[in-house]
């Protein structure tokens, strides 16, 4: 192309996005159309987005744009999550660098700082989402701590509490010593740890004998309240009702029996530390043991640790081991590999801790959730999501309280020290407290609100309902119109602590699942097969990629990496491929835009044929692409459009319509423009910016819709026979072109039926002056093609394959003869090693098999 230019995304994308915003194309209101609703998994306000977010949001945008073009009332609700633990950890780190802490600045000042943080990073995230081209309804943007959302969360907490589904209990929880809060089981990463098993002697009270106990955690010895053995363990039958002395102090503790103890682990004796191990607490409850807490909130030894008070837990372990050695109570140390829990947010080692927490009783939610899944009211893509039922059947009650300041504060109000009421407002709390306490003059000053905040996921599990204000105002017009949503696009790593809980709240509040389909994206990884994340620093900044290649190119790059539900390796050069595609589309636009018509010119046969063929093929692709999108096969759907444009339209169609003259028939130009606009429609959900820009340049009428709201056709008429015949002709042409390269080759074969090929096409693309089909039969039927005054005899496609097979048989027979001459030679057999003879005989057998298979293929032709 003489007018070939590079597409300049920088002068297009911001302008086009603002144009869409100004036209209010992303906004949705209930009307008579069918709704197509998607809720965005709200990203945490902890910094910039990574490539996993780009993948997730690109897929959502493809779905929402496609639905909008299919005539649905498309509603995509964006939002951000306050992310209690992660955000508070970020702010705490920021304060630490300034020599401050949240305790020093106070709750109000800390929350003010957190809101400033939220405003800053939410804006960064929103701008990134806009940059990638996401067509969200920004009028509906939500934040999980907005006043409406906060009121909804409070309302549900109170409702669940009044129904007995929320309770307060003293229980072992997972404690993050860095964040100084509890975390859920799902927020812990378990890793193999190369630790030690310490064998320690406990002196039996009143005797000179010792009991050896094996433990991985000697720092908790001072919290021991018993030693436990299995009642079936014959080694310890004589210890019943006896006591032992803790080796770090003079306190004695009982020896008890419980079936829980594994007789094969260590020495078969288990130290019971109820304040710091969940199973130990269960044993302690069964045997009425006392409880001693050895750690403070930072996992530093407290005053119960006696001389080790103030020591960090792992430093205390070292000093305790040295102390035991000096007292000759350490028998031995063994290497021992075991799992340790790591906080997903702060990377701190989890410490089991006994404390008062708030829980949701999960038993009433399990069966309805399983029914939704097993009765296929919700469809998973891909379908092989494992361990779902197992997790639900083994679910623990949900610890929803967090010892943080940033989050939804529990609507619990204390009076008279530990008495409390649960109420949506402080006014309601005061009324209820007055009734419960019989204190008519109880004042607001005597009420103290719970300091704990709710687990972040407690607001997120209500997300599909609260975004439509369906909790404060059940059955409002919006919740009735938009709920349930059509799709949820999310990562599989939050299946349990978000997706499953949203299904639970959907059952509890609405009686129906919150979404019809769930698509789990793969995990985006780098070249080293490591998950991309902000914390690891192995994810490129999406804005840098967009500035360099363009949003369309980055979207293409992530799509070229993706396959249904599989993890994907993202490389920057895939964005380069996306940019090359954008340039190709742009140059096709320039070429078509510069075509000139001559009204007197006739339409050539092959141009008309090309128009018919491509129109039928693109209609067939409309149908296939819709099928792939329904199955969430985004890579396949995009590659189908990619190849249709690059191979069929650019390499073949445009070649067919070209003329020796600078002018083309007006009908051809109009039809070419019509077909190119069809391609642009197909590309739009995947590459929205460049396609909208081209569409605006091609708009023929002032009242013609912009591409974003142009309807895709709903019916797909195409002729399979025409497409098949055209494809066969192209294959035949490729053989002709190969023969032109091979020069003087004569091949005699059967002739084709004239109806099976497009001869005008063969003449055009085969660069032939004429094509003759012989009517009279010579010894064998053949085509006679005249090219550059030389005559070639061109084979039918299948028989050409047949000749190739015969050629291969001939070569194999020569090779076989060489092998036989060797292995049937007496001198060779006398001097060759047995292994070499065996190898040669194997070659003979393999060669015979290949000849047999080749002959079999010939007979199939």
Task: Average the pLDDT over all residues and give the rounded result.
Answer: 87
Q: Quick one: biggest sheet?
A: 7 strands, mixed
What's the end-to-end separation, in Å? 44 Å
Name of the CATH architecture of the domain at 176-352: Alpha-Beta Complex
The total of beta strands comes to 30
CATH level-1 class of the domain at 176-352: Alpha Beta
Give me the secondary-structure category. Answer: alpha/beta
Named CATH topology of the domain at 176-352: Isoleucyl-tRNA Synthetase, domain 2
- Helix count, per DSSP? 27
Q: Would you identify the regions where 5 or more consecutive residues have pLDDT less than 50?
A: 744-753, 796-800
Gyration radius, to the nearest Å? 37 Å
Share in β-strands: 15-25%
Shape: globular
Kindly state the percentage of residues in helix: 40-55%
- Say which CATH homologous superfamily of the domain at 176-352 is assigned: Valyl/Leucyl/Isoleucyl-tRNA synthetase, editing domain
């Amino acid at each position: 192309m003489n007018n070939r230019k590079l597409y300049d995304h920088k002068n297009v994308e911001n302008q086009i996005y603002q144009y869409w915003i100004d036209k209010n194309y992303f906004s949705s209101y209930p009307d008579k159309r069918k709704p197509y609703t998607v809720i965005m998994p709200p990203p945490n306000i902890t910094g910039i987005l990574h490539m996993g977010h780009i993948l997730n949001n690109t897929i959502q945008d493809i779905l929402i744009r496609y639905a909008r073009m299919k005539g649905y009332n498309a509603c995509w609700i964006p939002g951000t999550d306050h992310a209690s633990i992660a955000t508070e950890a970020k702010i705490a780190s920021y304060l630490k660098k300034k020599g401050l802490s949240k305790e020093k600045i106070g709750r109000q000042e800390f929350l003010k700082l957190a809101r400033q943080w939220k405003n800053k990073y939410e804006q960064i995230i929103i701008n990134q989402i806009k940059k990638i081209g996401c067509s969200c309804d920004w009028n509906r943007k939500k934040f999980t701590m907005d006043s409406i959302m906060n009121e909804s969360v409070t309302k549900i907490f109170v409702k669940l509490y009044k129904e007995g589904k929320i309770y307060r209990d003293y229980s072992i929880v997972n404690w993050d010593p860095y964040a100084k809060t509890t975390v859920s089981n799902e927020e812990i990463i378990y890793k193999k740890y190369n630790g030690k098993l310490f064998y320690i002697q406990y002196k039996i009270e009143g005797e000179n004998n010792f009991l050896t106990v094996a433990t991985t955690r000697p720092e908790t010895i001072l919290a021991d309240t018993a030693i436990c053995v299995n009642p079936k363990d014959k080694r310890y039958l004589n210890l019943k009702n006896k006591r032992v002395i803790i080796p770090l102090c003079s306190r004695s503790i009982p020896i008890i029996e419980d079936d829980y103890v594994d007789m094969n682990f260590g020495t078969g004796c288990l130290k019971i530390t109820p304040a710091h191990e969940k199973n130990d607490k269960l044993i302690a409850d069964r045997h009425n043991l006392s409880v001693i807490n050895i750690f403070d909130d930072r996992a530093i030894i407290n005053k119960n640790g006696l001389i080790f008070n103030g020591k960090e837990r792992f430093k205390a372990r070292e000093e305790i081991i040295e102390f035991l050695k000096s007292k000759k109570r350490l028998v031995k140390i063994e290497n021992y590999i075991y799992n340790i829990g790591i906080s997903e947010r702060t990377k701190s080692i989890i410490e089991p801790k006994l404390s008062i927490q708030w829980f949701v009783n999960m038993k009433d939610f399990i069966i309805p959730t399983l029914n939704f899944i097993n009765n296929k009211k919700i469809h998973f893509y891909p379908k092989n999501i494992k361990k779902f039922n197992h997790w639900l059947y083994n679910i623990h009650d949900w610890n929803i309280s967090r010892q943080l300041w940033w989050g939804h504060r529990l609507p619990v109000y204390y009076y008279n020290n530990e008495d409390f009421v649960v109420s949506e407002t402080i006014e309601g709390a005061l009324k209820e407290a007055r009734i419960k306490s019989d204190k008519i003059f109880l004042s607001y000053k005597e009420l103290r609100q719970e300091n704990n905040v709710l687990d972040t996921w407690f607001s997120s599990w209500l997300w599909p309902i609260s975004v439509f204000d369906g909790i404060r105002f059940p059955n409002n017009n919006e919740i009735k119109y938009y709920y349930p949503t059509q799709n949820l696009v999310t990562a599989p790593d939050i299946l349990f602590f978000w997706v499953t809980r949203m299904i639970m709240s959907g059952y509890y509040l609405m009686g129906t699942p919150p979404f019809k389909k769930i698509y789990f994206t793969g995990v985006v990884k780098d070249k080293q097969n490591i998950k991309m994340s902000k914390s690891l620093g192995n994810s490129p900044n999406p804005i840098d990629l967009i500035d360099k290649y363009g949003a369309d190119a980055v979207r293409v790059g992530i799509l070229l990496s993706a396959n249904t539900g599989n993890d994907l390796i993202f490389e920057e050069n895939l964005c380069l491929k996306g940019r090359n595609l954008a340039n190709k589309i742009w140059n096709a636009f320039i070429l078509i835009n510069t075509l000139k018509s001559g009204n007197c010119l006739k339409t050539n046969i092959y141009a008309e044929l090309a128009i018919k063929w491509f129109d039928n093929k693109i209609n067939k692709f409309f149908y296939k692409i819709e099928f792939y999108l329904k199955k969430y096969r985004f890579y396949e759907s995009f590659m189908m459009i990619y190849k249709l444009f690059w191979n069929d339209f650019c390499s073949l169609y445009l070649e067919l319509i070209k003329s020796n003259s600078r002018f083309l028939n007006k009908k051809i130009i109009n039809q070419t423009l019509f077909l190119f606009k069809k391609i642009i429609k197909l590309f739009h959900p995947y590459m929205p910016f460049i396609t909208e820009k081209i569409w605006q340049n091609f708009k023929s009428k002032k009242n013609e819709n912009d591409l974003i709201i142009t309807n895709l056709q709903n019916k797909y008429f195409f002729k399979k026979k025409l497409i098949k015949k055209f494809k066969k002709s192209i294959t035949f042409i490729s053989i002709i072109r190969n023969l032109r390269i091979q020069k003087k080759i004569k091949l005699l074969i059967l002739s084709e039926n004239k109806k099976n090929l497009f001869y005008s096409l063969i003449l055009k693309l085969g660069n032939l002056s004429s094509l003759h089909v012989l009517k009279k039969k010579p010894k064998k039927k053949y085509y006679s093609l005249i090219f550059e005054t030389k005559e070639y005899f061109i084979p039918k496609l299948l028989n050409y394959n047949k000749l190739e097979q015969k050629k291969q048989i001939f070569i194999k027979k020569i090779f076989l003869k060489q092998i036989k001459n060797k292995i049937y030679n007496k001198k060779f057999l006398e001097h060759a090693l047995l292994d070499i003879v065996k190898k040669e005989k194997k070659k003979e057998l393999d060669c015979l098999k290949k000849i047999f298979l080749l002959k079999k293929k010939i007979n199939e032709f």
